[in-house]
Fold this sequence. Notes:
The structure holds 2 protein chains of 2 kinds. By secondary structure, chain A is an all-alpha fold.
Amino acid sequence: MNNTLRNRRRSLGAIFVEGDIFTKLSYVIWGLSNIVRGQIVKGCVYLGIEVAFFYYLFNSGIMNIANMITLGTNEQGMYYDESIGIYVVQQGDNSMLMLLYGVVALTVIAMALVVWVTSIRSGELARLRKVNGQKVYGVADDVVSLFDQNLVRLFLFLPLIGILIFTVVPLIYMILMAFTNYDSDHQPPGHLFNWVGLTNFKAILNTGSKLGSTFLPILGWTLIWAVVACFSCYFGGIFLAILINSKGIKLKKMWRTIFVLAMAVPAFVSLLVVSTMLGQNGIVNVLLQNWGFTSSPLPFLTNAGWARGTVIVVNLWIGIPATMLMVSGILMNIPPELYESASIDGANPVQQFVKITFPYMLQVTTPYLITNFISNINNFGVIYFLTGGAPQTLEYYKGAGKTDLLVTWLYKLTKDSNDFNLAATIGILIFIISATFSLITYARAGVTRNEEALQ
Amino acid sequence: MLKKEIIGLHRREQTIALGGYAVILLCMLLPFASVGGQSVTGFSLAARFLAGGSGGFLYVCAALLAVLQVACGVFLLFRPSVKGVRLWAALGAILTLAVTCQLFASKGCFDANGVFPGSFMVKNFGVGFWLLLLASFVSLHFAMRATKVSTGYIVLTILSVIWLFPIVWIVLTSFRGEGGYYVGYFIPKTFTLDNYKALFSANSVIPFGKWWLNTFIVASVSCVLCTLVVLMTSYCLSRLRFSGRTTLMQAMMVIGMFPGFMSMIAVYNILKGMGLSQSLGALILVNVAGAAMGYYICKGFMDTVPKAMDEAATIDGATRFTIFSKIMIPMCKPIIIYQLMTAFLAPWGDYIFPSLLMGDRQESYTVALGLKWLTDFRRINTYYTQFAAGSVLVAVPIVILFVSLQRYYVEGMAGSVKG
């Protein structure tokens, strides 16, 4: 990998040395080398891109980058206009847009660089073919090659542009935001915000401050939630799958469908329904009182401890069928001879599970467990639709509640209190946590898989 | 003389079950429930309800069945037959059901018939009842074991009831004639179709038909486009070798570890810059643009398709595009169905981004936004039954789709697990 990179880099310099005058000129005038060798259309496209790029760069690109560095200097406010002798409102700079346009400008420059390198290579290829007396590719040849040798370009172009615009650019923008003070007191366009370095990270990780004393408990609950939710659904699902697949059970398909129903109903529907059922006057409390189990409504979603228990139990209701469905297929793959010989040796069902089923299952499903754990750290839906993070507490920073996970807190910080810098910081911390967990487990499990080995 | 062995019958379990039913009979003589020093036994309750009284059949039925079970049990002990024990176990199941129902129905029944009026709670059940409940399950377990019927049915039945409870509730509520959120009973007093009609009536404030259609459009368009994007991306990553391939895959994995909606605000601003905010097109665009990130499962599947087929085709002069369209696509049918299905289902439950994108523009809402809007505390009391009807209308087509295509879903999941 490194080797090829180095080779390529050297060859970019080598091209300059080896190439003729047009090749050298094409480092400045993109596509010139192509035009000279007869690839008029291709060369003109490169040239057009260069013109457009530099037009953009001088027209607004450089300014955008400069603005991103300052994040605006003119604050909106009343200024004295000497010529007319009164105070007038002056539109200030919009730091948020400046940051966004700056990121866009950087992206455009990066893409232009890619085009530049491509144009040089393509010009060099054309030169070599001409020198060697081979046919120089025309437009038609290029189009044909898009369906064969260069299929990658055809297939990956649009998907990667999509990822770039709607995933990478926003992500860079938000990561940068973690290093600014774009909070509720610095809202553009009325106010400016500025670069503050690592202040946000220090504030969140400082246990003495209000923010710090919110972050740590929420992190703790997030991890507890992720572990409990992940493993309870996992073992529950395995248990259910074994139960349904066991020998004596008839109408397997019907039983499976009953549980799959819970999973097939869109999660937000079932979660909204369940949250209305569990309210103070919801049907569950009504029935429990009618049946004489309790004399006053139970605080399913309003008491911190109860609410945490409730979200875990409700998550079982959705998660167990999902695991059951996945595990069913794997269970059938376990060679039945193993069980036969085990039962001849006198192993009871529990021993068979511990010695045969579970080790097999664990080995096969480790990657699933990791992704499931990480998706539980980010399990927005269950918390948001069931409790919305409630019950809120004054111990926590602005509006965060006892069942809030880091992600739902992040959402609240962006949606309700507009503390984008804190939200971005938490996002980065979540990333660090997820990445650490997956790296550790992948390294431990030794899941280095060989793509070719599956053939 | 006891017959020792009968084919298909476990005599030991049969005897234990009979013992259990004898215990039940004894339990009926123990205090069933007691409030403030006063207590009643199971038999006295049954005797009291024998004369009539609402809900009393539970107690009469349980007492009669307990006597019957012991009598039949003794008979079967001497004249055993597989069919007989099966029937016996079935009666035992009814007894267990009746006793379990007593746990839930006792308060209502006692209050209605003036037993401990108004003061009975579940905690007032006496030792007799709890033993009875336990013994009825244990006996049923052994009675079933006696004829080699799997006792997993007991657990499955209990679990099914728990799992179906919310679903049954929402379906019943959607047909409920009485409006409102707060009702003190499970089964509606009157049934009506008005809740469904109200969703689609022209003068309704809820443009549910429009919401449903919006979601359907977004789901259909984006499922086709997303699947295409995923197929192209995974084909490149699985089959074509190009510089930067592994870097690309690693980069996508790393990017995928950031919480998705951290960057929602930025996406929203970009869409606004494009002049696309508050439109369904923007929703589709964002879905499709992110689709390539989900290449993993599909690539894993393509990795298992033998490469020899590609090589053979290449020798015959096929271009890579031909290999993709003529070999890969047909081979990947299960995973294509899986991708289509997951991409089609996603917009129905997607809430966060659409809510940011659409804001208060109700005519562009998807069902998730609309239904969430209906459960706002200011509206829930007025619209709860219509919310229920809406939920059913969203859930039914999806459930049908999901259950009928379950096989592909399982295969897709299994593929991702193996990878």
